[in-house]
Every structure is written in C-alpha cells, then in structure tokens.
Design brief:
The chain is of the alpha/beta class. The protein contains seven helices and nine strands; from the N terminus they run βαβαβαβαββββαβαα. It has one domain: Spore Coat Polysaccharide Biosynthesis Protein SpsA, Chain A, CATH 3.90.550. The strands form two sheets. A seven-stranded mixed beta sheet has the order 3-2-1-4-8-5-9. Strands 6-7 form a two-stranded antiparallel ribbon.
C-alpha cells in the first residue's frame, strides 16, 4: 500500500500568528516537521498541503511535493470533516498519514512504530491519544469518579483524548466517513512530551523550550527524556 505523509498548514492562523513559518528555536514548525518526516521509514511520499507561498517555497527547496490549497479549504469557514475529506480527495495514495506541525515533538521512532502497528493490524485507522488522568466534571457533576470516594489521580479510569499528533487512515475510509477516526480505530498513547500540542502562544513557548532542551537529535535518534542535575 502506498503511504503518503500529508502535512497540512495554512497561512491564516488566528490564535498563533504565522505559527508554521515563524522562528521556532533554530528552525520553524513546518521545517522541523518535514525534516523529521524525511527520516521516517515506511513513508512513500511527503506532500505539503497549504495555501502559504513561503511553505511552498520551502517544500520546493527540500525537494518535496506540495498541493496548493484552494482558498475555501484554507479559510476559517471550512469544517473539520470538509477539511479531512479534501485531504483524501487531492492525495493519490492508499493510506494517509496526517502529520500536524502543531505536534512538533513526535519522534521518528514513534512514527515508524505507528506505521508498523497499522500495517500489521486489521484496523482502518490509527490515532494517537493522550492519557487524561484528571478529575473531570460536566454540568456540575463528576463524570469519571465517585465524589464520595475520591481516588488518587493514578487510579482514575484510563480516559484518553485525541491529540491528532499521528493519524494514519485508509484513504477510502476517510472519503467515506469524512473523519480521521475510522470505524475500527486503533489508539496509541503518546507520552507527555510527544503529546505536546500547540493551540495558543503559551503552548508555542512551552514546545519551543522543550525542543531547545531536547534538541533535534532527540527526535531522530529515539532519545529518552532525562532530567539533568
């Protein structure tokens, strides 16, 4: 099966202005993601899907393919299901691996493990998740514990949340469902570092500080987090 890594970006970022192309330590989010993906075994092709001319120029410079996204699919009006289906419609492949620039700390080895697990399974999608060991409430009531017998946080149920750092899905499934979670998904849990997701300026600062601490080698050499004295 042909596996294509699609890196979707747009120039109209609202919460973090120019997040994909602005300085991120010694690089940028888009450049870092593309450098990491080029190291990943099991990917047949990398395509940048964007409306940003600077990102297109970077893709050309790195010898990678790109798809110039139509204005509507780069706007704030497009819904997630429309956006995801569009990625499938314009990408020639059997399997898409959607790699978000906003998850900058995913390691090469993790991508490779995810690809192998997907190919060796009968699932139609593989999605990365984060473990949420938190005391969750909805409408004034706890939803994952009994308030009369409050447990330790580590004893809370293993509730997970989609973090969208890694999405691997059959193209036909995405076209049919218009969702990155298939009918028979497989979830892989990322640690706190790889789960870092940039939604706002504080997230950007935290991710940048972690990257400066860890370095590029951590991402490409299966590094482990160590606290130095």
């Amino acid at each position: 099966m042909k596996i294509v890594a699609v890196v979707p970006t747009r120039k109209g970022s609202q919460r973090v202005k120019n997040k994909n192309i602005r300085k991120f330590a010694d690089t940028s989010l888009i450049e870092l993601k593309l450098k990491v993906l080029r190291k990943v075994k099991g990917i047949d092709e990398i395509i940048v899907n964007t409306d940003c001319e600077k990102t297109i120029e970077l893709a050309k410079k790195m010898g990678l393919k790109y798809h110039k996204r139509d204005a509507y699919y780069a706007s704030s009006n497009v819904t997630n299901d429309e956006h995801w289906r569009h990625l499938a419609e314009v990408t020639d492949c059997d399997v898409l691996m959607i790699a978000q620039t906003t998850s900058p700390l995913v390691k090469v080895s993790t991508y490779e493990t995810a690809i192998k697990e997907f190919l060796n399974s009968k699932n139609d999608s593989l999605n990365s998740v984060s473990l949420e060991k938190k005391f969750l409430w909805l409408d004034g009531k706890p939803i994952n514990y009994d308030i009369s017998k409050t447990p330790k946080s580590q004893d809370l149920p293993d509730i997970v949340s989609l973090n969208f750092a890694i999405t691997i899905i059959k193209r036909d499934t995405l076209l049919e469902t218009k969702n990155v979670v298939g009918k028979n998904p497989k979830f892989i849990t990322l640690d706190k570092i790889e789960s870092v997701d940039i939604d706002d300026e504080i997230d950007f600062m935290v991710a940048e500080c972690l990257y400066q601490k860890l370095g590029f080698e951590y991402l490409i050499e299966n590094g482990e987090w160590r606290i130095e004295n």
